[in-house]
Amino acid sequence: MNPPQNDTLLRALRREPTEYTPIWLMRQAGRYLPEYNATRARAGSFMALCTDPDLAAEVTLQPLARFALDAAILFSDILTVPDAMGLGLHFVEGEGPRFSRPLVDEQAVASLAVPDPERLRYVYDAVAAIKRELAGKVPLIGFAGSPFTLACYMIEGGGSTDFARVRRMLYARPDLLHRILSVNAEAVAAYLAQQVAHGADVLMVFDTWGGLLTSDSYGHFSLAYIRTVLDRVRRASGVATPTIVFTKGGGQWLERIADTGCSAVGVDWMTDIGAARTRVGTRVALQGNLDPLALLATPDVVRTQASAILDAAGTSPGFIFNLGHGIVPSTPPDNVAALVEFVHQDSRSRRRPAAVGQSAASRAGTGSSGH
């Protein structure tokens, strides 16, 4: 597979020097864009949009038409995997995702199985369609939810503030939770490997609810299964696809996440990015970590907050600018434009003096014209 014309993100993930800090945004294709809302209205429902490869490709590419982002990310939903397992995913307006058949008893857990890959064919077709439409411009990021985060929804039946049922099962029947997580890990690994086979250049694992756990439970019930997923994807795909792991609320475990073998660790807005670099060293790239709510302020505030993050991150290789979680629907698109432009321009200017100095030293020492 040929590298994209803009491979800045891929080089940052390999911790190689880049001319500027690459930027993409979690949920960059979404409800804050009027063109997305128009496409969703045309589709009729969120699920209809997700399951139509052409429409999924259309909304994936919409933010790239507006902003000079350094990557596209597949438009889909983390809950497509448990839906393919037969749990019956649907979305309730104003309430979010719901499962018609959640894992409410031991029999339901015992019956859980890795889904037939054909039930997720629409996702793989969307990946292939997006890849064709991108025509090699920027990398395509594929993704999945972590086994634990998927289990949270599968057991609870939908979203929750504390996922009390899940945590109760963890203490009362850990064997049942481990059974769910084992099936999820196998399913997620197969799902991600197929995304690579259809064109994904980078993979991201969203562990949205791992931060709810105690430190010990995080290791046993979330991180161990993320590691299993990454290992299985590497074996199944046969290629060294870069991987990003993001645990929201997981700032205390950055070193442990880095030890999974991922290429980059996603950092939420509650963790200082400079301190994160000190803790994990240079063995992984870092991604983060603007508070999404900062984008609801003015463009000047957005630039100030972005500048502070760039200050903390420094200019050493291996940093990707992103949010500390997904864009909220009320975000003004003009603020996103200001952010992307500022990160590119400001990070270029931070690198330029060093590059000029190195070039001058090279010319003085060797007589070459430099490069």
Give a verbal description of the structure.
By secondary structure, the chain is α/β, with parallel strands linked by helices. The protein has a single domain, classed as TIM Barrel (Alpha-Beta Barrel), CATH 3.20.20. Helix content is 51%, strand content 11%. It is built from 15 helices and nine strands. The strands form two sheets. Strands 1-4-5-6-7-8-9 form a seven-stranded parallel β-sheet. It has a two-stranded antiparallel sheet with strand order 2-3. Strand 7, helix 13 and strand 8 form a beta-alpha-beta unit. Helix 2 runs antiparallel to helix 4. The longest helix has 34 residues. The chain is globular and about 60 Å long. The protein starts with 7 loop residues before the first helix and ends in a 5-residue tail after the last helix. The C terminus is likely disordered.
Secondary-structure map:
Blueprint: H1 8-13, H2 34-43, H3 46-50, H4 53-66, E1 72-73, H5 80-87, E2 89-92, E3 96-99, H6 106-111, H7 121-134, E4 140-145, H8 147-156, H9 164-172, H10 174-197, E5 202-207, H11 215-237, E6 243-247, H12 254-258, E7 264-266, H13 273-280, E8 285-290, H14 299-313, E9 319-323, H15 333-366
Parallel strand pairs: 1-4, 4-5, 5-6, 6-7, 7-8, 8-9
Antiparallel strand pairs: 2-3
Helix pairs in contact: 2-4, 4-7, 8-10, 9-10, 10-11, 13-14, 14-15
Please name the defining characteristics of this protein.
371 residues, alpha/beta, TIM Barrel, two-stranded antiparallel sheet, 15 helices, 11% strand
